[in-house]
Amino acid sequence: MAAAVLRAAGDGELVARLRRRDPDALGELYDRYGRLIYSLILRIVANQAIAEELVQESFLRVWNRSEGFQEERGSLGPWVLTVARNQALDYVRSLEGRSAKRSVSVDDTEPPVAMNAAEERILDGIQLKKVRVAMQRLNANHRLVIEMAYFEGLSQTEMAERISQPLGTIKTWTRMALKSLREELGAVAS
Amino acid sequence: MTHDEARELLELYQLGVLDEADRREVDEHLKTGCADCRKSLAGVAAFNASILASVPLVEPPPRVRERVLAAVTPPKARPKAQPHYLPWMAMAAALALAVWLGNEARVKNELLTVARRQVETVTKERDGLNSALTFLSAPETRPVGTKEDIAKPRGLYFVNAQSGILLIATNLPVLPAGRTYQMWLIPKGQAPVSAGLFKPDVRGGAVHIQPGAVDVANAAAVAISVEPEAGSTAPTTTPLLVTPVAGI
After folding, report:
1. Of the candidates B55, B70, B68, the residue with the CA atom closest to the CA atom of residue A59
2. Are B183 and B195 spatial neighbours (Cβ–Cβ below 8 Å)?
């Protein structure tokens, strides 16, 4: 389904309309990424009502910050996804009394960094299937640390406390899991 | 921290989940101008995005899209809503307090908290009203001091010159297929005027409101009748629960 595709044709034109404050452009943005954003947020907060609230906040954040977006520098999808993850993790952290942390480089306060064509390939639908397969191939411990980092926003120290394992073990699992995923996905980032 | 060590941490660095000491070391490494790591950051962002995008897809309810668009649509283009000053004042107060505290996450959480409280309050009010209306429209409920046959159809009308007419009815006969109840306002010396269509629940209970101004001084009576599904311009069956307005 097209909703899973993070790199969509016409991102630049859509961004231009968002910057002109065209409400229909936000509707198109939602049609492209709404299901994915909702799915990600629901995965993180595990509450439908809260997820709905946070989806709305995420799209409004993108709407309010589209002025600073430079379409020639990268794709819209990763940026929208990062905004949504930050919103959801901020909510979960606030419930748990943890301090807020934000992802960097593609932070939602800045436009996304440039991605060349080869790097963007990882964001199309075919590659997403590969990601799902690669995630399933990880052993249970490796998958656990990846999920705690990506979907719970836990640091390695927090992971060690969460599952009562030595920090060194967590670091080893994380390193091996990421190495495996990079290899499976074509090592675009290596 | 060596280049290889820094490179191995770039995914977690980009995600913002590195422990503080590691994050500082990666920062220092990037400040040395490592072109390889800087170049890798873009790929790392794409890599991380693809992991996040691999979640099982769940279809959001249609109302989510509506809410997103409503938030950016100019008010004049939206249906006019009744003002709710107190909730907005509470929202504004929460927002002002949170801004003063200078924490963006706190702003969001304050707003969410206020919104949840509003939902809880509205839910409680709705539940209370539903309980009262269910009680009033139950066949076994009757006014104290009366000896009414509780099996007979009964109705209680309320009229408000500015707001309309409310009927709470019980024991209404089951409607044949393709039929509905219609409420009538009967002005003095004039033909009945429709006051809306309604259908009772399975126990014959109904709560029906016809909103709008009512000329109470010139109203003779209110009544209901059984009519075709689309309603009628005048009663076509013998009216039930005919009640003089003066007797309300």
Report:
1. B68
2. yes
A133 touches chain B (CB under 8 A): no
The answer to whether B100 touches B106, Cβ cutoff 8 Å, is: no
Q: What is the DSSP string of chain A?
A: -GGG-SS-TTHHHHHHHHHTT-HHHHHHHHHHHHHHHHHHHHHHH--HHHHHHHHHHHHHHHHHHGGG--GGG--HHHHHHHHHHHHHHHHHHHHHTPPP---SSS-TTSPPPP--HHHHGGGSHHHHHHHHHHHHHS-HHHHHHHHHHHHS---HHHHHHHHT--HHHHHHHHHHHHHHHHHHTT-TT-
In this complex, do B53 and A81 lie within 8 Å of one another by their Cβ atoms?
A: yes
What residues in A contact B61, CB-CB < 8 Å?
52
Q: How many residues does chain B have?
A: 248
Are the C-beta atoms of A45 and A54 separated by less than 8 Å?
Answer: yes
User: Is the CB of A171 inside 8 Å of chain B's CB atoms?
Assistant: no
Q: Check CB contact of A114 with chain B, cutoff 8 Å.
A: yes
Least confident of A173-182, B137-146, B218-227: B137-146
Of B10, B45, B109, which is closest to A113 when you measure between CB atoms?
Answer: B45
> Cβ(A21)–Cβ(A60) under 8 Å?
no
Contact B136, B148 (CB under 8 A): no
Q: Distance (Å) from the C-alpha of residue A56 to the closest C-alpha of chain B?
A: 5
User: How far apart are the C-alpha atoms of B72 and B156, rounded to whole Å?
Assistant: 44
pLDDT digits (tens, 9 = 90+) for A19-70: 888 889 999 999 988 999 999 999 999 899 999 999 999 999 898 888 776 6
Pairs across A and B, CB distance < 8 A: 189
Look at B53 and A40 and tell me if their CB atoms are within 8 Å: yes
ipTM of the complex: 0.83
Closest Cβ–Cβ partner in B17, B68, B73 for A155: B17
Instruction: Kindly report whether the global pTM for this prediction surpasses the value 0.80.
Output: no
